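Recap for those who missed Tuesday's class. We walked through two folding examples back to back. For each one, the amino acid string is listed first and its predicted C-alpha cells come directly after. Nothing is annotated here on purpose, so try labeling regions yourself before you check the end of the notes.
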Amino acid sequence: MAEMVSRGGRGFWPVDKVIFAYCAFSGAVELIWFARIPGAGFLLALHVLGVALIVLAAGNTATAGPVFQVVRRFRHWYPILFVACCYREMATLIPAIRHARFDQALANLDFSIWGAYPTVWLERIYSPGLTEFLQIIYTLFIPVALLVPTIIWFQKRYAEFRYMAFLLALGFLVSYVGYLAVPARGPRYLLDHLQQQPLQGLWLFHFMQAMLNGLEHDHYDCFPSGHTELTVLACWLSRSISLRLFRVYFLYTLCIVFATVYLRYHYTADLAAGAVVAIVLILAAPRLYRVLSEKGESIGD
C-alpha cells in the first residue's frame, strides 16, 4: 500500500485536473472561433483523444506487470508532451484570433524605463564568443528545465516528481495564456532596423538559431518570458537535490535571463513578467496542489 501511495495511486492527480481545465479553456476558444482557426476540428479531436487517454490511465486497475509499468510512466511523464503540443497549438490560435500586437507597447515600456532599447544598447558589449556562449545557454533551456525532475525520477522520489511535473506544467500553461493575452514576437523583429550589426557566433550559433526558429514556428511567445519563468521554477526545485546544484542553476538563471535580451528574443518587460509569474506560482502552487489532490497530498509525501 505504501508503494502505491508513493506512485500516486488511481484517480485523477492535480496535474490531470490542471490539464483538464486548460483543455476546456483552449477547446472553448476553438469552438467560439471555429471558422477562423485552421484545422480547428483536428485540434478539438486531439483534445478529446488526450483527455480520453488520461481518463483511461487514471482508471487503470493493474497493480503490477507490463501494463502497470507503461501506465505508470505515461501518467508521470505525459504532462511534458502535453505542454509541448499546447505550445504548437498556440502558434495556430494566436494569429487566427488575435489581431492586436503588443511589441510596440513593450518596446516603449522598455525605453521609458532604461532610456534606450536594451537590445540596441547591448551592442556595445557584442562579441562572437559571447554570442555563441549565450546562444548555447538559451538553447539548453528545455534540457535544463527537465533535468531536476529527471534526477528525482531516477532517485524514485515519485511524490516529489508528481509535484514538479505539476508545477512545471502549470508554469508552461500559464505562460501560454499570457501569449494569447499579449501577443508579441520580440525585439529581433520590431527593432531590427535599429540594430547596427547582425548577431554572429563562432561555430554553432546559426545552427542553433535556425533550429529554434523552426521549433517556435513564428510564434507570438514573448510575454511573459517562459524562459525566465520556467528557469526560475527549475532553479527553485533544484534545491531538493543539493545546494551545489542549486548554485549551478542560480548562475544558469542569471545567464539565460541576460541571454534573452542580448540575443534579441525578449523585452525586459517580458523578463519581469516571467519572474513575477514564477514567484506567484512558487508561493501558490503548494496550496493549490493540496487542494486539487484527492487525499491532500503534499510535496514529498
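Example two. Treat it independently of the first, because the proteins are unrelated.
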Amino acid sequence: MTGDSAAGSPNRAGAAPAGAAPTDSMPGDVDPAADSNLPLDAHLHTDQSPDSSVPIDVYAALAVERGIPEICITDHVDFDPRDPAYEYTRYADRERVVRGAAERWADRGVTIRFGAELTYNRRWEDDVRAHLARYRYDYLIGSVHDWPESPYWPSRVRAWIQGRSLEEVLEPYYTEIIAAARSGLFDTIGHLDVVKRYLHPSITAAQLATRQDLQEPALRAIVESGVALEVNSSGLRYPGAETYPSRSVVARYRELGGERVVVGSDAHSRGSFAHRLGDAYRHLIDAGFGDLTFRRGPERVRIEVPGGTRLGTAEGLRS
C-alpha cells in the first residue's frame, strides 16, 4: 500500500452524503460575516481529492474575500487500495498545484500551506511512516474514517450495532484514534468524534452525548501525546448539527490539560469554505483557549484566537 496519492467510502467527513454531489450553497440562515476575518482555515479539500471538484484558486479567492489570511490544503491520502484516495493523485502533482497557487496568491492577501489528511489505521501504520519518511508536508492531519472492514460501513452499521452497548459500538473507532495519537505521525487528530455521523440515525448525537465518558481515553491520549485537537465545523452541516468534536468535548479536553488546538471547515465544495468556522473558534474561546497550534513546515507556531466580540470582525485580526 503506497498511499501516494476505487471504490471507496461514502462517509468521509466534510464530503457530501452518499449519492449526493457537493453543493455550492449553504443554508440561507448562515451569516458569512460570522465566518470572516478569522486567522486560519486548516482543513480544505480541492479537486486533488476524489470527493471534491474545487480548484484551489476558488478557495484562495474566497479566503481573500472573507479576510482569512492563511489556509491549508489537506487533500486525502489513503493507504488501502479499496479506499477512494489511494493513488488518486501523485504527491508531486499535489505539491506542484499547492506550491504554484501559493506563489500566485502570496501578494494578494492569503498564504497557502501544503498539507494532507492521511487516513490512519493500525493495519497500515507502517505504510504511513514510509510515506512520511519519503515526502514532506507543511502540516499533517491524521484521521480515522470508516475503513472497508469497519463496522461503520453504511451497508452494515445498522445491523452491527444491534444488541451492542455504546461501549462496544464506539470501541473500534476510539481504539484507532488512540493509536493515531500515540503514533507520533501527525500534527493534529482530525474530526475526533465523526463516528457520530456514521452511526446516525441508528444512534443519535444526543444519545452519544449522554456517554461522553467513553471519549475520555481518546482525549487523554491526545493530551499526553502532544498532538493537537482539531475542532472541525463540518459536523454543523449534518444531522446532529455539532462540531467534531462538540463544544462540551472541547471543554473537557481543556479540563484534562489539553493545550493544542486547531480549526478547519473540512470544505469539499465552494459553499462549505469556512462554513460555520466562527462557531469552532467560539468553542475554543469558551473553553479558555487563547491560540491555535499549527505547523508551517519546519516551524510549529502559535496563532492568536481573536477573542470575545471581536471574533468575526476586522478588528479581531488586529489584536
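Answers for example two:
The radius of gyration is 18 Å.
The domain at 36-317 is CATH 3.20.20.140 (TIM Barrel).
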